[in-house]
Amino acid sequence: MTINSKLPNLPESIFTTMSGLANKHNAINLSQGFPNFETSTILQHLVSQAMSNGHNQYAHMRGDIELREVIAQKIENLYQTNYNPQNEITITAGATEALFNAITCFVNKNDEVIIFKPAFDSYEPVVKLNGGLPVLIQLNYPDYKVNWQEVASKITSKTKMIILNTPLNPTGTLFTNNDMMALQYLITNTNIIVISDEVYEHMTYDGHPHQSACKYPILKAQSFVIASFGKTFHNTGWKIGYCAAPKYLMDEFIKVHEFNIYSINTPTQKAFATFVKDESNYSYLNQFYQNKRDLFLEGIKNSNFTYVPSKGTYFQLLKYDKITQENDVDFAKRLVKEFKIATIPVSVFNVDNLDEKVLRFCFAKTDETIIKATEILCKIN
Questions:
Q1: Which of 134, 259, 332, 374 has its CA 20 to 30 A from that of 111?
Q2: In a 3-state reduction of DSSP, which class is residue 330?
Q3: CA-CA distance, 232 to 350, in Å (whole number)?
Q4: For the chain, which domains are there?
Q5: What is the torsional sign of CA 288, 291, 296, 299?
Q6: 97, 71 in Cβ contact below 8 A?
Q7: What is the Cα–Cα distance from 47 to 238, expressed in whole angstroms?
Q8: Percent of the chain having pLDDT more than 70?
Q9: Is-contact 208 174, C-beta < 8 A?
Q10: Tens digit of pLDDT for each residue in 199-236?
């Protein structure tokens, strides 16, 4: 059989590669972005309780209404804006499904989609699957600042969508109020749709606030805002998130959702509907992860790596140009084999694999794991 692949040049995911190497060499895995500590035992109990109470059949296609109402209240409390839980919020199979749906329901052949690089690796393939054309804007170490004049120059009559991610994976940087205002100005009086990937919204540090797209009226009116329970509550394997958008956008989103996933795991929705009501179950996260970031940075202060402290996410970039001039992919693989520590080379997220000698480390780990990892990093020279 001859197969005409829609993604003919898609390589193996770097996460698969590095986690596979970590397992093979029994290395500390700071590559893939998942915690190595347990989710709340209370939350686990709530899931079991929901199953015992008979919540084991299909949920509503848009998601459990109580959970949608809780999310609407959470957004109002955090960002002082409202979404109608009946038709402007949808529960999804993680943020990845929400991203897929939002792109798929609007991007057609030859539509242009602006993506800031380095970027999470699911954006471009989904754009291409739908016949769209990724328009890439490279941001650079160490601050990864957006040049909004460059963005303006990339906007054409074919621009259908702009995708942003704040806090930004893999860089750990944030879009500021000025950035959001600049973006809002650029899309005013246009038909451009924004996808705002905000899965790390509760992980910002040193007093820096998270700037959600829903805080800006014109942006909100043209945006899908995407969030993740898996990232927030340390249970990435549960694959549950949500999307909020104005009704006219969500009406299209739900058409893809219906025939892609239809509905999401019912017991977990029931559990989150109870758990998320209590703000204290997520309001502590900024300080919790800042403490882990600080423990990681304190541990490597005498190493040969250089860095700018992460402002958000649970990732920290380290520059290694004082150690070696190796390609970052090669160096990352050597770290696993020789030093038993796995990380992610940032070039794989860049335009044309731009290599700035930078690696991404995940500090969503137990303090014991972080200390062991930093002891290893201090021995590399």
A1: 259
A2: helix
A3: 26
A4: 14-32+284-377 (3.90.1150.10), 41-280 (3.40.640.10)
A5: negative
A6: no
A7: 11
A8: 100
A9: yes
A10: 999 999 999 999 999 999 999 999 999 999 999 999 99
- Rounded Cα distance between 73 and 276, Å, is 10
| SS3 per residue for 268-286 | HHHHHHHHCCCCHHHHCHH
Beta carbons of 127 and 107 less than 8 angstroms apart: yes
CB count in 10 Å sphere of residue 37: 11
| Contact by Cβ (8 Å): 10, 126 | no
Distances (CA, A) of 199 to 168, 175, 264: 9, 14, 18
Tracing tokens 């015992």 back to the chain, one arrives at 52
3-state secondary structure 334-359: HHHHHHCEECEEHHHHCHHHCCCCEE
Question: 198 to each of 45, 95, 213, 252, how far by Cα in Å?
Answer: 27, 9, 9, 21
Q: Where is 259: in which H helix or E strand?
A: helix 247-260
**Mind listing the pLDDT tens digit for each residue in 79-108?**
999 999 999 999 999 999 999 999 999 999
Q: Which residues pair with 113 in a beta bridge?
A: 134, 161
What pLDDT, on the 0 to 100 scale, is given for residue 142?
97
Pair of tokens at residue 39: 């989710």
| Rounded Cα gap, residues 241 and 364, in angstroms | 19
Report the chain's mean pLDDT, rounded to a whole number: 97
3-state secondary structure of 363: coil
Query: What single DSSP character describes residue 167?
Result: S
Cis peptide before 125 (omega within 30 of 0): no
Q: pTM above the 0.85 mark? A: yes
pLDDT at 233: 97
Please list, in sequence order, all residues whose beta carbon lies within 8 angstroms of the beta carbon of residue 374, skipping any fewer than 6 positions away. Answer: 295, 296, 298, 299, 300, 303
